[in-house]
Request: fold
Amino acid sequence: MYQKILESFFKHRWIVLIAVALVWFLAVYSALGIKLNENIMDLLPDNDKRISAYREIYDKFNP
Reply:
């Protein structure tokens, strides 16, 4: 069974290569819209008293 699939891939290798390239380009294009937030402070919860105090102190000393 696997041998028939592999033979089919080798027989139609250009179609397989074009399909893989198309999927790769679509994946890269969709990944361009991803925005990464590197600020660790934005990941902390807002309703924690200790974190709120830390943010106050941080804002005072790091304008």
Remarks:
- The chain has a mean pLDDT of 91.
